[in-house]
Amino acid sequence: RSTQERVKPRNETERQIAQIWQDLLEVSQVGIYDNFFELGGNSLLAVRLMKYIENELGKSLALSTLFQSPTIEELAAVLRQESISSFSPLFPINPNGSKVPIFCIHPGGGTAFCYFELAKLLGTEQPFYGLQALGIEKGQEPLTRVEDMASLYLSAIREVQPNGPYTLLGWSFGGAVALQMAYELTIQGEQVAFLGLLDTYAPSKLTDEQNIVEVEGEEVVFQLFGGTVSIPTEEFQKLAPEERTVFILKKAQQANVVPHDFQVADIEGLLKVLELNYNAMRSYSPPNYSGSMTLFKPEKGSLGFSQEVIAAMGPTLGWADESIGEVKVETVPGYHEYMVYPPGVTTLAKKLRACIEKALSKVSYSQ
Q: The domain 12-80 is classified under which CATH number: 1.10.1200.10, 1.20.1250.20, 1.10.443.10, 3.40.50.920?
């Protein structure tokens, strides 16, 4: 649709949304078929957009609405509906295509925006759904156990795909939830064709000290706009944990990725979800899972942890010490915090596609 000529807003709702977009995205004109993300919108701007819509139009929308309705025309149509549909953890990044869907669980920060690039690289024929956490939208109580998240997300994915074979994926904290989901599906007699963990550390390897570093919020900020802000690694690692979030926010403001009046308080809900998720991770005991998992490990490790700490976890980041059928390891470029963003995500998408195709070719459909 982006090839169409810009069509001007046709009614008051479209005009109001267009004005908000122009202010937010700092563009001089927008058409009703323009896509928010293609115009440079990212997840922090999405959080902001929802705030503006609430203030100026008096309706509060779920973040996932923007993925389902990323144009002015579609958003206006949603806003004209009397009742706004209830929250679902399912986030259809690309609901179309003929392949077996990929279900990708949110990292610690709870949003699934970070998978946008990965989904795009996997192509239009690959259905791709993110799952996002309860608690990132206002008025929701976050879940505090990996097992509870797994069962909620399973009931959501079964609405899209009632039976296997299933393809599950999760970055960071999301990998643990994906593992629990895979375990529960196999107990229920379903086939899990592929389980992928994007640099997820086994919970037994997370010490309190590491956990504190993670919870200070830089992980959330990376998940929100990792690929669009370049962070000087050495400078970042010298900072005290509590200074890191503000440092990244400043860099994002300098790069014009977020508005200059953006505050850490604007992502308070996300920070709360992050903290609860890391506590959930630390108290999680992985099940005896007889299937195989593929661990995607970034060559450079993590900005939050020293190389020594990661090396001490061993080549499988501790998963070989758990009761898992088989742990395969694939290496991808870059750091943990950037693995789903350009340029590294290109290699990740290629390897992921190859692994999934291979796994699906071995699946028996005689259920």
A: 1.10.1200.10
